[in-house]
Amino acid sequence: MKHHTALPPITGHTRSRHNRGGGAGCGGHYPNELSGGQQQRVAIARALAMRPKVMLFDEPTSALDPELVGEVLAVMRDLAAGGMTMTVVTHEMGFAREVADHVCFMDDGVIVEEGHPDAVLSNPQTARARDFLRRG
What we know:
The protein has 136 residues and is α+β, with helices and mostly antiparallel strands. The chain is 44% helix and 15% strand. The protein has a domain at 12-100: 3-Layer(aba) Sandwich (Rossmann fold). It has helices spanning 12-20, 36-48, 66-81, 93-99, 117-122, 127-135, and strands at residues 54-58, 85-89, 103-107, 110-115. The strands form 2 sheets. Strands 1-2 form a two-stranded parallel sheet. Strands 3-4 form a two-stranded antiparallel sheet. A hairpin with a 2-residue loop joins strand 3 (103-107) and strand 4 (110-115). Helix 1 packs across helix 2 and helix 2 packs parallel to helix 3.
C-alpha cells in the first residue's frame, strides 16, 4: 500500500524566496530541461524556502560552464547584500574578495591563513597562499 502526503500549496513567502533565489520561471520544468546555472539557482531557491539563518555553498560554480558562473554568483551577491550569512567554499577569488567579510585559506583541510579578504588575498603571509593566489 502506498501512502501519499499532500504538500501544502506554495505560499507567497515560498514563492518570493524562490524568486529571490533566482528560480523564477523554472517552475514547470524538469531538471534535465534546465541549464546548469538554472539548476543551481533552483537549488538555492529551494534552500531559501526553509528560511535558513546560514547557507552553505561547496564550490557552487565548479560544475558550471563559464558563461553560467556569473548567473549563480549574481544570486549569491544578492543574498549577501540582503544580509544572508553564507559559508562558501570557492576558487572564485574575485567573488570572495567582493562579497566576503572574512576568508580562510585552507591547505589539506587545515586553515593556514585567515582574516579580512583584502589582507589575505592581497598580502598573503604564507608561502602556500602566495603560490596559490599567484596561479589564479
